[in-house]
Amino acid sequence: MVLHMESIATKRKCFICEQESQDGIEVLGKFLCTECQHKLINLSPLDEAYDFYRRKMIDIWEGYMKDIKYENRM
Ligand SMILES: [Zn+2]
Q1: Nearest to residue 23, comparing CAs of 38, 37, 34?
Q2: Ligand 1 centroid distance, CA of 72 (Å)
Q3: How many angstroms separate the alpha carbon of residue 74 from the centre of ligand 1?
Q4: pLDDT at position 71, please?
Q5: pLDDT along the chain (74 residues), means of 10
Q6: How remote is the CA of residue 44 from the centroid of ligand 1, in Å?
Q7: How far apart are CA 61 and CA 6, in angstroms?
Q8: How far apart are CA 44 and CA 21, in angstroms?
Q9: What is the pLDDT, as a whole number, of residue 4?
């Protein structure tokens, strides 16, 4: 039970805002905090931050695709 509590309290670094948080989801093997998750959902292309978030997502996606391609070669 103690171990279970510890795993819940573990803070992870969000790949977008780089803040440590316990609340969030995993996207393509990277941690995304709840705050950024909400921002992404509500983000409009007219938003100043849109480009920043979009680029972050592309970075993560490209890294993920590279790993897959590499695995396929083997
Ligand atoms: Zn975040």
Answers
A1: 34
A2: 31
A3: 34
A4: 72
A5: 58 94 92 94 92 92 85 66
A6: 17
A7: 30
A8: 24
A9: 57
